[in-house]
Amino acid sequence: MTSKQLHVTMISSPGIGHILPVLLLAHRLATRHNLRVTVLPVITTDGSPAVSQLLTSFTTTTKNLSIIQIPAADISAILPPEAKVVTHLCVMMRETIPAIRTAISTINPRPDVLIGDIFSTESWVVAEELSIPKYVFVTSNAWFTALFAYSPVLDKQVSGQYVDQKMLLDIPGCKPVSPDDVIDPMLDREDETYKVYLNQAIGVTLSDGVLINTWEDLEPRSLDALRNNEILQSVLKNKPVYTVGPIHKRYEPDVLKNDIIEWLDKQPEQSVVYVSFGSGGTISVEQTEELAWGLELSRQRFIWVVRPPTGKHSDGSFLRASESSHGLYAYLPEGFLARTVEVGFVVPSWGPQVEILNHISVGGFFTHCGWNSTLESVTSGIPMISWPLYAEQKMNATMLADELKVAVKPKVWPTRKVVGRDEVARMVTGLVAGEVGKEMKVKVKRLKEDAQKALCENGSSYISICKFVEDCWSRI
Ligand code: UDP
């Protein structure tokens, strides 16, 4: 084997939910597989302070890893502000290609391989100009990857809206997808976002291979289908599929204490439910009120990361940091804070999630089921309440509740109708204090162990990354 170091350049679209796993994979490739990695995160000017903090924490220390921040192109003249997040991300990434190209031209030595997240596939053109292989990193799971890649075929097979279908949507070799669970861009086939999404799906099939943030034991059926099902393989044009996960933020026990952790220190073991909807999730005024009442009625302890409610979009703060939390508590029921002062802790807009999930007092996670949050919960051994809001979260929530049985879910998704206080209270009590919670805890602890094994030397994801590196060498 040559002594030259393989040099990978990784591109991430904006948003902590994308930048975080790209940086974490970069870190893994640099530290465990001795690759030289340059990460190009595309950053919006009004992005969350958490992104800046994250970038700083990675830049300072890691050998073999460098970061070149790319300012996102201004697309305000091209897209109206109310355009959906997926359209925003795709157009923004397309318009940022000249800046990405310029940044890559300054990297020395020249990269050997390009890896991009699913919003970066327009940059394949840069890889082609350099004649280097290009891989897509799906920061979600294999089941989603299968639906995503297969969507252009479904587009030809299915007439009418997906959400109105009477039958489940068949994905060859995989568990079918319920019309209730389809991902956001598939909700309305007449919307511009659907066209953008199909184009994005085609971009994935034009890559030289697919890396997925999952592991073999978690999704054997979907992974087998992606690799061996004739129809899916022909859609993917026989591309290799590598499992690299769980790539997730790790708990660092020596982080400075803050008032949340100090409050947790005083609570009984496994008694607290942590409520948070990721970096982007927002809920309506009415749902905020029902959720608050539900938490209060449950009489369980809680930490709730509260954001200002939004009228229309459940991904209201994905590309923009939450507006000021000034006046936020006005959305909570009158007297809520005073009545729950003994059992609850309300955090405005952002909390140290991984530290909270790893605290011994936490017994459950009320989550929007973003894939990073899901992995953080599983690897902390914490069962969940599934509360999907946008993107592919309904599929994740169904997988967690119905297949892996490590989450409970409301009867109807909160995106369809407001979930009432009694149902919220029932789910919270069942999770933290009921039999159902105990059973889920046992199952999630098993998943946690499997996840740890996958990443160990000679674990399935470790081996898969070695294979990816070997394949890269053979292509350059
Ligand atoms: N996060 C956090 N504190 C918060 C909200 C979110 O640290 O108050 C982190 C969380 O730990 C996760 C990421 O932001 O790593 C959110 O990613 P996810 O895929 O779960 O959801 P998204 O924000 O992409 O919808």
From TrEMBL:
Keyword Glycosyltransferase (UniProt): yes
Pfam families referenced in this protein's UniProt entry, alphabetically: UDPGT
Cross-referenced SUPFAM superfamilies: UDP-Glycosyltransferase/glycogen phosphorylase
Enzyme Commission number(s) from the entry: 2.4.1.-
Gene Ontology MF, one: UDP-glycosyltransferase activity
Keywords, sorted A to Z: Glycosyltransferase, Transferase
Top-level taxon in the UniProt lineage: Eukaryota
PANTHER family registered for this protein in UniProt: GLYCOSYLTRANSFERASE-RELATED, UDP-GLYCOSYLTRANSFERASE 72E1
Similarity comment: Belongs to the UDP-glycosyltransferase family.
Protein name (record): Glycosyltransferase
Species annotation: Deinandra increscens subsp. villosa
